[in-house]
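Let's see one such:

===
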Amino acid sequence: MRLGVLDIGSNTVHLLLVDAHIGAKPEAFASHKRPLSLVKYLDDDGAITAEGQQELLGFISEAVRFAARHRAEDMLSFCTSAVREAANGAEVLALVENETGVELTELTGAQESAMTFFAVRRWRGWSAGHILNFDIGGGSFELAYGQYELPSTALSVPLGAGRLTREWLPESYADGAAPSKAQIKALRSYVREEFEAVRREFPSLNRHTEITATSKTFRSLARMTGAAPSAEGPYVPRTLAYRDLKPLVKQLGEMTAAERAKLPGVSAMRSAQVYAGAVAAEAAMRAFEVEELRICPWALREGLILRRLDALSREAGVEIPHAPAVGHVDLARELRRPTHKDVKALAVEHARA
């Protein structure tokens, strides 16, 4: 089936269409996205303005037509911190449904974290053992840890790249200026203290724990430190090492947004906030004593797609067929069959009789 996933994020609004079938890997078919920073449309009370609401309605209407034109059979629609934290978030959700017929699901931070972890687990498989995953969004930073398909610990903290830039580096956010030394010191101190507190919410990591990262920010940081470009596809292994990230953070802090946009993996749209994202990534890796992490190409959207396919499988009562196995044993029949010891005992009893 062709499935659409509509993602209303902090920096972009994105519709992804995938061809997805039960038991198969989802394959991207087409996408439609637009830069739309809803936080730029907040008034003094933290509510999304009428102009921002109209921008959102316009894109969602486009997305619905795009999905219909490409014969999508189902569409998942969700929003994250940008709408979740708006003072009039509930009213905006109701307006979207009334005007477009699209029911946006408002994900909590913990749900975002858990569904992203779920996607990572499916991508990495069971050979990964325990997983700790980091994800940097525009408004929040998600962390999740566990050994099963869903995490045992899932947190979302207000340390997203856009939020940190907006609140701690206002000149960088407004016009792309390089931050001052005082701003850098204050930002790094704040982020470090926050992650030290977050670390206490997680158990000790054993040496078999696999550390992974998702999101555009982590992919950009990996690219700037030598990872393969996205054009080489999702199967090329990509990593981010702490020893490479640390000097990169210092370099980015000395640059303007325009200068950062010339670096590999950095788009003009995200160049103003990539420095704050790098500071958050460095602080997280330091707090958890991570020397290197793996970049995972699947994240929240894929997690929701896979969860939806699982639900459809259960609803349809789909049974996964299997071929006859070599050495197959009917355990129910074997439990009813007397054992060798039982047969011998019966023979002795019969002789005595």
In short: Confidence is low (pLDDT under 50) at residues 339-344. The first strand starts at residue 2 and ends at 8. The longest helix spans residues 50-69. The CA atoms of residues 158 and 227 lie 28 Å apart.
